[in-house]
């Protein structure tokens, strides 16, 4: 047996909240989706990065997140990708992307579901910056 290598050199936990003004729901809710919190990841460098994004929210809510590619030093791997089907309490996505700038939008399936959440981000590139845009 060998040790399992952890590729994530940077790990960050963000505590966020969906409030009456930021609980926009999923992209099916066209009028309110833009109200959701947005976190921007800037992965510095020229190569590829491994990302792990996890969203922990109240189990009463089906949640998920979208990742939007803002810009890269290579060809865009996607314009927008998702964590997949909305799940109660927890959603995760592990993805390999070129270094660049990505927005993460955590959301619940339905609008106006208020509560706290944790957004955990792991990156294989140490020089990764994370900021809340709104």
UniProtKB/TrEMBL annotation:
Q: Which residues form the signal peptide?
A: none
Q: Name one Pfam family in it.
A: Calpain_III
Indicate the family of this protein: Belongs to the peptidase C2 family.
Q: Does the keyword Nucleus apply?
A: no
* Cited PANTHER family: CALPAIN-7
Upper lineage is: Eukaryota, Metazoa, Chordata, Tunicata, Ascidiacea
Q: What is an annotated GO biological process for this record, any one?
A: proteolysis
What highest taxon heads this organism's lineage? Eukaryota
Protein name in the entry: Peptidase C2 calpain domain-containing protein
Q: Which keywords accompany this UniProt record?
A: Hydrolase, Protease, Thiol protease
Q: Which residues cross the membrane?
A: none
Q: Where is the Peptidase C2 calpain domain?
A: 8-130
User: What molecular functions are annotated in GO for this chain?
Assistant: calcium-dependent cysteine-type endopeptidase activity
């Amino acid at each position: 047996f060998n040790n399992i290598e952890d590729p994530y050199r940077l790990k960050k936990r963000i505590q966020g909240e969906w409030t009456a003004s930021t609980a926009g729901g999923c992209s099916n809710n066209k009028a309110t989706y833009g109200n959701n919190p947005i976190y921007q990841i800037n992965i510095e460098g020229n190569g590829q990065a491994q990302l792990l994004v996890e969203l922990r929210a109240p189990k009463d809510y089906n949640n998920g997140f979208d990742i939007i590619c803002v810009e890269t030093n290579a060809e865009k791997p996607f314009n927008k990708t998702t964590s997949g089907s909305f799940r109660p309490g927890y959603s995760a996505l592990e993805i390999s992307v070129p270094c660049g700038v990505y927005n993460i939008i955590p959301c619940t399936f339905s609008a106006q579901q208020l509560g706290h959440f944790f957004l955990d981000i792991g990156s294989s590139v140490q020089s990764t910056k994370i900021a809340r845009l709104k």
